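[Meeting: bench + compute handoff]

Bench side (C.D.) handed over the final construct sequence. Compute side (W.E.) agreed to return the predicted structure before the next meeting so the bench team could plan truncations. Sequence as handed over:
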Amino acid sequence: MTDLEIRIRIEPSLAKVPAAAWDACAGLIPAHPIHEDNLSPDLSTRGYTNNPFVSHDFLYSLERAKCVGGRTGWQPRHLLAETTDGELVGCVPCYMKSHSQGEYVFDHGWAEAFEHAGGDYYPKLLVAVPFTPATGPRLLARPGPLQDQVRGALADALAEITTASELSSAHVNFLTEPEWTALGQRGFLQRTDQQFHWENAGYASFDDFLGALASRKRKAIKRERKEALAPGISVHWLTGSDLTEEVWDAFFKFYMDTGSRKWGRPYLTREFFSVVGAAMGDRILLMMAKREGRWIAGAINFLGSDTIYGRNWGAVEHHPFLHFELCYYQAIDYAIQHKLSRVEAGAQGEHKLARGYMPHTTYSAHFIANPGLRRAVAEYLARERAYVQAAGEELAAAAPFRKDLAEQE
């Protein structure tokens, strides 16, 4: 197969990128693959992911609602890979960053060390979905036999832009493991971390899932669910046309309450929820709690082809275990009913383990231009990867599932 001549350019706004072309690279819609002559059927569909966060709808909603751009410290610098006739065959959601907030992969220590040594860590390049610690593809390429070539060109461009622009570094956060491996082979430093995900073992119902747990854990979850709804609270699943402005007004109050307590300045604007709801409401699921006719708490989820992604939560009334009910148990219930394979409930939280969420490795890759900083970070990451692996194995051994079932497998 002949190599494709690829040109890389930087685009400062998705407004100028056709949604269908971007989403074809992201594997979200069918598209004629690159060089489709003599292409086997398995290659024509290879790479489809249906990850909602790399969609043009989601990323452009962040731009339209001014969550990125302006004075946010997130300046869009999306990489586009095009053929000589201008056809888009690859793309990367990329941002110039003047800080490290909203990333969930923490490099503040690297920045501080480099600046103490007289260097300028910011601005830096970041390939990521803003404010979204969810694994997904980052080097997006149209499916086909030249997919790897396109991804390689995008990876090389990241390093070249970093060096040519005299930036300190380029970072690729929450990428897939194959991308992580490929970038490691191209000189990017490799980092791991850990999240907790729930896996659907073909459960027929929530009670079926509970039956797989050890007795003590099963009883604890039943008690938590009962107490969460005891004060006359009802839970409602809202999606699509259910996502009215009244609902978004209520949810934004919840979001602001949590955001102001956790981060000081919430990242998402009120406009974002209206914009993203209009753009992709069928891929959004709100778990909303109501008491005495009033919305009191809610959690927002995004839907992929086989995964429900839990994102933000908040409340204006605080009841014991309501957070667990809306964010964890309702998501499991939904996944079981809709035969989804996985629930990803966001970053951090070892408390999720007792509720059936198991440790899973997450990945990031880092191109560090300065040799001294690169050497120091590489040594640190070697130790950190070993720690993450050991911690994951220890946590997995403390799984809440019945030991007799594990022995039968």
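W.E. noted at the follow-up: The radius of gyration is 22 Å. C.D. will use this when planning the next construct.
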